[in-house]
Specification:
Layout: E1 10-13, E2 20-23, H1 24-27, H2 46-52, E3 58-67, E4 70-80, E5 85-86, H3 94-107
Antiparallel strand pairs: 1-2, 3-4, 4-5
The protein binds zinc ion (ZN).
Residues 55, 80, 82-83, 85, 93, 95-96 line the site of zinc ion (ZN).
């Protein structure tokens, strides 16, 4: 059995011998053409994006793309739901950055 993945979109159900694993991010994208496998998590950028993004209310859309000999998860769309703003870089929302600067100034 694979270890559960430390990712908010990963879902594993091993109860009573079940071995169901799912990526809820990809399951939510009906246009994804390549079936998700647990091994896609090993090269997936999403957990790192969730940790490093300055947006705390990040909504992502992802798909699996084939690259040469392997397939991997790629983020196709990122939105800061706090500011309803599409982000070209999912790791950075300029509005969240401005808020964080402002509150940093208040603390000083
Ligand atoms: Zn934001």
């Amino acid at each position: 059995m694979n270890k559960p993945v430390n990712c908010r979109f990963f879902y594993g159900d091993y109860f009573r011998g079940k071995n169901k694993e799912e990526c809820r991010l990809l399951a939510a994208n009906p246009t994804n053409q390549i079936a998700w496998k647990r091994s896609h998590c090993d090269s997936c950028p999403v957990p790192e994006i969730l940790i490093s993004s300055n947006s705390r209310e990040l909504a992502l859309e992802a798909t699996i793309v084939r690259k040469f000999l392997r397939s991997q998860v790629e983020v196709t769309f990122a939105v800061c739901t706090r500011h309803m703003m599409e982000l070209s870089d999912p790791r950075y929302c300029p509005e969240c950055a401005a808020e964080q600067n402002r509150s940093a100034g208040e603390d000083a």
